Amino acid sequence: MDALILTVVTLFKIVLVLVPLILCVAYLTLAERKVIGSMQVRVGPNRVGFKGLGQPFADVFKLLCKEIIIPTNASRFLFLTAPILSLAPLPSRQDSRNRPAFPKECSGMKRQWFQIDLL
Description:
Helices cover 51% and strands 0% of the residues. It is mostly helical. It has a domain at 2-66. The protein is extended, with a radius of gyration of 23 Å.
């Protein structure tokens, strides 16, 4: 029972932090669009809701309803996981200080050195 309560409290805390963060990002994007619209002497997003305040929610709905088109000759698994894999840091053989990324004796070392391998 204690594990269930701990899980619920933890999920509540996560939601309590993430929801305001997501809303701030959405409305900062709306403000950016409005500023760019005024710089280009046009109105900017104003179709959804009062003065465009519903635009971030319309953008999210549009993004969630988009169809994912997978090329016919492509590997479905690789096509769907490539964006995630491209953001994952990969250990390389050596870092910029010429130390190996995976030292032979890891037990005595306090740090392991990693470098993001972009190519």
